[in-house]
Design goal:
The protein has a single domain, classed as Endonuclease/exonuclease/phosphatase (Deoxyribonuclease I, Chain A). Helix content is about 25%, strand content about 35%. It has six helices and 18 strands. The strands form three sheets. Strands 1, 2, 3, 5, 6, 7, 8, 17 and 18 form a nine-stranded mixed sheet that branches. Strands 4, 9, 10, 11, 12, 13 and 16 form a seven-stranded mixed sheet that branches. A two-stranded antiparallel sheet has the order 14-15. A hairpin with a 4-residue loop joins strand 2 and strand 3. Helix 5 packs parallel to helix 6. The N terminus is likely disordered.
Length: about 300
């Protein structure tokens, strides 16, 4: 009986996966993938576009060795070790009514915004700039002429950024990962924040695993506090196992929610926040109707290194 149920369940899974792939095929006809991977950035004092922004492991390690990332400058802005707030949300390119109202309401007093499927509309730019965020968006593609990808925004300016782009195996639509480093007040430690949108449309886990392993090469260079947050598309138990194995190797713990309002696919959470070297003071997942994902908000503080 169990084998019969398992076989039936696998058939349903494959049929739904096929439907999703066909949906992506229709979507992909509206996008343009730039040949060069690039980011668009907005600081309080300047805006820029960079077309050479890959995560070079050797370069990152050199920066650490040379002390470039050490908190030695009085001008470096710092994340508050005593407490900061982070929000993660896949906003579905702002396609649903009410997303602006929800975004403004939920991002109020948030220190770090981790956004997937961000699209550089005038509306999104306006919200971020009005609240004086420093922001970077790693461009996966242009959708209807607008740059789209993962966006990280923060009240404090990062001291380092880098980004990776991985293509979906079927339709070559990329997913991007954005890594930022922030100085932490009262310490020479750096907080690494990873904004991840994982490969989705595969029948196996090999390409999903490859993307995570490419990210891991960078993360292994950093020994301090870390947050990995995003739409990780863990809609099968095998994908969950791949994710957990990698994150646990890095010494990360999962943020949990007393009332888990995260969106599920096949009964599994697809949005996650993992952390280390920090303490979770409060966490909440909030139901909204303005996206196909629900935002997660977490209050963190630096863990006492003497504990």
């Amino acid at each position: 009986m169990f084998q019969q149920y398992k076989s039936s369940n696998n058939k349903v899974l494959k049929l739904i996966s096929l439907f999703l792939i066909l949906e992506v095929f229709a979507f992909s006809s509206c996008i343009r993938i730039p040949k060069e991977h690039f980011i668009v950035s907005q600081r309080k004092v300047f805006a820029s576009v960079q077309d050479s922004c890959g995560c070079n492991v050797d370069q990152f390690e050199d920066l650490l060795v040379e002390g470039v990332l050490a908190n030695t400058s009085e001008d470096v802005q710092e994340i508050d070790a005593g407490g900061f707030q982070l929000m993660n949300w896949n906003i579905l390119k702002g396609k649903k009514n009410g997303w602006e109202k929800d975004f403004k309401r939920l991002s109020d007093n948030i220190d770090i915004l981790i956004i997937q499927e961000a699209q550089l509309t005038d509306e999104l730019r306006g919200i971020l700039n009005a609240d004086q965020y420093n922001w970077d968006i790693s461009i996966a593609y242009k959708y209807k002429g607008l740059e789209t990808g993962v966006l990280t925004a923060s009240k404090e300016e990062p001291v380092f950024i880098c980004t990776l782009r991985s293509k979906e195996p079927f339709f070559k639509v990329p997913k991007t990962v954005l890594i930022t480093l922030y100085a932490i007040s009262g310490t020479d430690q750096m907080l690494m924040v990873v904004n991840m949108h994982s490969i989705n449309f595969t029948f196996g886990t090999s390409r999903f695993l490859k993307q995570l392993e490419e990210v891991e090469k960078i993360l292994l260079q950093h020994q301090g506090p870390m947050i990995i947050s995003g739409d990780i598309n863990t809609w099968t138990k095998k994908r969950v196992a791949v994710m957990e194995n990698l994150f646990y190797r890095l010494g990360l713990s999962a943020v949990t929610f007393a009332k888990n309002n995260r969106v599920k696919i096949f009964g599994l959470d697809i949005d996650h926040i993992y952390y280390r070297g920090l303490v979770v003071k409060k966490s909440v997942a909030i139901k909204v109707g303005s996206s196909d994902h629900n935002p997660m908000l977490v209050d963190f503080m630096l863990k006492n290194t003497d504990e």
